[in-house]
Write a structure and sequence with these properties.
The protein has helices at about 25-35, 95-100, 120-125, 140-150, 165-175, 190-195, 215-220, 240-255; strands at about 10, 15, 45, 60-65, 70-75, 80-85, 110, 130-135, 160-165, 205, 230-235, 260-270, 275-280. The chain is α/β, with parallel strands linked by helices. The protein folds into two domains: about 10-70, Met-10+ protein-like domains (GMP Synthetase, Chain A, domain 3); about 85-280, Vaccinia Virus protein VP39 (Rossmann fold).
Amino acid sequence: MRIPRAFDRFGNIALVKFDRKTNIKDKKKFANKLMKNHKSITTVLEKIGRFKGRLRKQQTKYLAGERTKEALYRENNCTFRFNIDKTYFSPRLSNERKEISQQVKKGDDVLVMFAGIAPYSIVIAKNSGAKKVYSNEINREANRYGKLNAELNKVKNKIVFLDGDIKRVVRGINKSTIAPTTTLRRVKCKNPELKDIPRYFNIIIMPRPQLKDSFLKEAFSLSKNGTKIYYYDFCKEDKIDSIDEKVRAEAKEAHKKIKILKIKKAGEIAPYRYRIRVDFRVL
């Protein structure tokens, strides 16, 4: 048996990717040994598919332990529940969430696009002086967990959930008629708190999936002088400069002047292929 070099850990759940030639007997043997060596791991799943589409769902297969796919995970003084198969979550972005939360200033209005189960939103709401965090996600199941997690972490009053397609959300904000509901119907919102969605944000975070559309057009439409944007993209190591060029080109198209503050590798997702984070300010 080829023993996996590493595995992803989501609190009580370990997610393992095996070599194709590994038989089921050896997989279960490895899974049971893993639980024996790590007492807090109560379930072991096999990763059998990649994250797919904008909903970022993946496929896993039960191997050993408790028969569940709901994880309980802790990081950055926060607790998260989520379903491994139905929602996207990366424990490898824990330091990213911490780093960005430390740059949020008191009184900032923060928008998190593609928020998933709301880890960025919640880490920021709990560990910074942000005035409000506006959390957007298209996956309904992820939104359900996001709202549950906001309650678990006692930041329900600091987060406003803007469920649905980000393009529709942005159009609604631009027209100042949006009601942050799961259906995003253009109805007048009776809740005074939800009426006060900012027309522009101090900080916009874009931990987007691997899609052709950059969604920078939408971010620029919600930015003002001084808005800081954290934009994530994916590329091979020798193509990092192309991400810089893309951001600058889209800023020009949106008639925005920007200053690139930092370009960093935010994790290797495949051999010589990286998640890239571009920090820039709108001038």
